[in-house]
Design a protein that fits this description.
Blueprint: E1 9-15, E2 19-26, E3 34-41, H1 48-51, H2 56-75, E4 80-85, H3 87-91, H4 95-106, E5 110-112, H5 115-129, E6 135-140, E7 145-151, E8 154-161, H6 165-172, H7 176-188, E9 200-204, H8 206-218, E10 229-231, H9 233-245, H10 248-252, H11 259-262, H12 265-279, E11 283-287, H13 291-298, H14 302-305, H15 309-321, H16 327-334, H17 344-356, H18 368-378, H19 386-399, H20 409-415, H21 418-438, E12 449-453, E13 456-461, H22 475-483, E14 487-492
Parallel strand pairs: 1-4, 4-5, 6-9, 9-11, 13-14
Antiparallel strand pairs: 1-2, 2-3, 6-7, 7-8, 10-11, 12-13
C-alpha cells in the first residue's frame, strides 16, 4: 500500500566541475532542509585547462551518477526535478555533447547555467536564508568564482571569474606566487568590488566551508554549526595565512574537514584572502546555502517566499511539538511592555523564543532546560547568526529555570554580551510566569496585564476568574529581579 506523503518533494541535481549532488527538498517548506542529500565526486573539470574538454573518466562517472539520481528522484515521487550544469559543462568544447547524452540516456532536461545565472542563483540562496543580507556574495566552486552584490532582498552587479580551485590548481600548480598573480589580475578587472567596504562578505562553497571549520577550531568557537559562522575579516586572515602554511597532515586533523578538500585548501585560502582584501568587508560570514538553495527558493510560491525563515521554522516546531501552538503570539504581545524601545532585530529573536517556548514540555523535567537549549542551538535554522541562535536558546533555557553554571549553558554566555543576557533572562522568566499563570492554555493570558513603570512591576489579573488563584509562586519575584525592579504589585481587578 502506498502512503500519501505530506511533503511535495522537489529534486535538484547540481552538476559541478568537481562533484555532482542531488538534494531532495520538501517543496511545501519555506526552509530547504534536505529530505535526501548525496554527492558523487566525478571531477568533470579535471584537466580542462590543458584540453578544453571534460575529463573522459569523469564523463562516465557523471552519466552513472545522474542516472542514479534521476531514478531515486522518480522513486521518491518528486514533483519536479531540476538538473543544472555549471562552469565545467558550460566552458568545455564537448559540454553540449555531454548534455545531449545525459538527456538521451535518462529522458531528462538539463539546463546549462550561464555565469550570470549561476551568480544570481548563489546570491538568491543566501537571500533565501538571510533576506536582509547586505554586501557581496562570493561563491567558490571547482571551475569558477561568482561574485554578486546583495541589498534589500535583491541582487545587483555580478561577475563570473575563472578562479575555481580546480582550474586554479591546474593553471598555477604549486606556485603560490603565480596563483596570486592570476587572482589579482582577475579581481582588478571588477571595480565594483569596492562596494563591499564596511559591509558583509558571504563566503559560499565547500572549500570555504572547510576553512570555516579550521577557523572554528583555531579560535575554540563554542558552536560548530557552519551556517552563518561569522568573524572579523582581520582575524580570519590570520587563520587563512596559517592554513596556507600548514602541512596537509595538520589540516586533515581538524574535525569535520574532508580529506578530499585538504589538497586545495591552501589555494582556497589564498582566494579568500584576496577577495577580503579587494572587498574590505566589516564582517565575514560563511553560508552553507548557495546555488541549489537559490533554485529551490526561486521556485517557491509567493505565500512561502514572503515568510520570515526563522519564524517559519519556529512555528513549524511549535505546531508539531507544543501543547497549544497558538499561545506563542499571545506571549509575544503580553510581555511587550517589558521591552520599551526594543529593536526590530531583538523583537524577532524574542518572537522566535515565544513560539518555541512550549515545544519541549515532554522532555524529562530534570533535563528539560538543557535539552531545549541544545536542541535550539543545533536546529536547522537558516541564515541565523550564532549570537542570535544563542539568544533564542538562552531565553528558553531561562524559561525552564536552567542552571547558568552548566557547562553547556556557558556556550551561549560566551556568545552574548551583558545587555543580551539581561534581555534573555527577562524574556525567559516572563515566559515561565505566563506559562505558570495559564498552564500554557490559549486566550487566558489576554485577561491579564503586565506593567513595567520605572522601578515598579505590576501584574493585573481578573479577580472573578478562579484560574488565576495562584498561590506561593516565586516566578513574579524572579521577573522583578531580572528587571531590577524593587516594587512588585500583584493586583486583582
Amino acid at each position: 500500500m502506498k502512503i500519501k506523503r505530506r511533503q511535495e518533494p522537489v529534486g535538484i541535481v547540481d552538476i559541478g566541475s568537481n562533484s555532482i549532488r542531488l538534494c531532495v527538498y520538501d517543496g511545501a517548506s519555506r526552509v530547504p532542509v534536505p529530505l535526501f542529500n548525496e554527492k558523487a565526486v566525478c571531477a568533470l573539470g579535471e584537466g580542462m585547462g590543458a584540453t578544453g574538454r571534460l575529463n573522459p573518466a569523469g564523463i562516465e562517472m557523471a552519466l552513472a551518477a545522474v542516472g542514479r539520481f534521476v531514478a531515486l528522484s522518480r522513486a521518491m515521487d518528486c514533483e519536479r526535478l531540476d538538473i543544472l550544469a555549471t562552469a565545467a559543462v558550460r566552458d568545455a568544447a564537448d559540454g553540449p555533447d555531454f548534455v545531449a547524452e545525459l538527456q538521451r540516456r535518462h529522458n531528462v532536461q538539463v539546463k546549462v547555467l550561464s555565469g550570470g545565472q549561476e551568480a544570481k542563483l548563489a546570491a538568491t540562496g543566501v537571500l533565501c536564508g538571510t533576506p536582509d543580507a547586505d554586501g557581496i556574495v562570493a561563491d567558490l566552486g571547482g571551475g569558477s568564482l561568482e561574485l554578486v552584490t546583495v541589498q534589500d532582498g535583491q541582487f545587483g552587479q555580478h561577475v563570473t571569474l575563472p578562479l575555481g580551485v580546480l582550474r586554479m590548481a591546474e593553471a598555477a600548480g604549486e606556485d603560490r606566487g603565480r596563483a596570486a598573480e592570476l587572482i589579482d589580475a582577475h579581481l582588478a578587472g571588477v571595480p565594483w568590488l569596492k562596494q563591499g567596504r564596511g559591509r558583509t562578505l558571504y563566503a559560499v562553497g565547500g572549500a570555504w566551508r572547510a576553512i570555516a571549520r579550521v577557523c572554528i577550531a583555531q579560535i575554540h568557537h563554542p558552536l560548530t554549526v557552519l551556517d552563518n559562522f561569522a568573524l572579523d575579516p582581520r582575524e580570519a586572515q590570520h587563520i587563512i595565512e596559517l592554513v596556507s602554511t600548514q602541512s596537509r597532515r595538520s589540516i586533515a586533523m581538524v574535525p569535520g574537514v574532508s580529506k578530499k578538500r585538504v589538497a586545495n585548501l591552501p589555494l582556497a585560502a589564498l582566494l579568500l584572502d584576496k577577495v577580503i582584501r579587494a572587498t574590505q568587508p566589516q564582517r565575514l560570514a560563511f553560508s552553507i546555502y548557495g546555488m541549489r538553495e537559490g533554485q529551490f527558493y526561486r521556485r517557491l510560491p509567493d505565500r512561502l517566499r514572503t515568510q520570515d525563515p526563522l519564524l517559519w521554522v519556529c512555528r513549524q516546531l511549535s505546531l508539531t511539538n507544543a501543547r497549544f501552538p497558538e499561545h506563542g503570539d499571545e506571549l509575544m504581545a503580553w510581555m511587550a511592555p517589558l521591552f520599551p524601545g526594543e529593536t526590530r532585530h531583538d523583537a524577532r529573536l524574542r518572537h522566535a523564543a515565544c513560539l518555541v517556548s512550549d515545544s519541549f514540555w515532554n522532555e524529562h523535567p530534570d533535563y528539560r532546560a538543557i535539552q531545549s537549549f541544545l536542541r535550539i542551538m543545533r536546529l536547522p535554522f537558516m541564515g541565523v547568526p550564532h549570537r542570535d541562535r544563542a539568544a533564542i536558546a538562552f531565553t528558553v533555557f531561562n524559561r525552564y529555570q536552567g542552571d547558568e553554571d552548566h557547562p553547556q549553558a556557558q556556550m551561549a554566555i560566551q556568545l552574548l554580551d551583558d545587555a543580551d543576557l539581561k534581555r534573555c533572562r527577562v524574556a525567559g522568566t516572563a515566559l515561565r510566569l505566563a506559562h505558570t499563570l495559564t498552564g500554557g492554555a490559549p486566550n487566558l493570558l489576554r485577561e491579564t496585564r503586565l506593567i513595567a513603570d520605572h522601578n515598579d512591576l505590576v501584574l493585573e489579573v481578573p479577580a472573578a476568574n478562579p484560574a488565576f488563584a495562584l498561590e506561593n509562586d516565586r516566578t513574579f519575584d524572579r521577573l522583578a529581579k531580572a528587571l531590577e525592579c524593587d516594587n512588585l504589585v500583584f493586583r486583582r481587578v
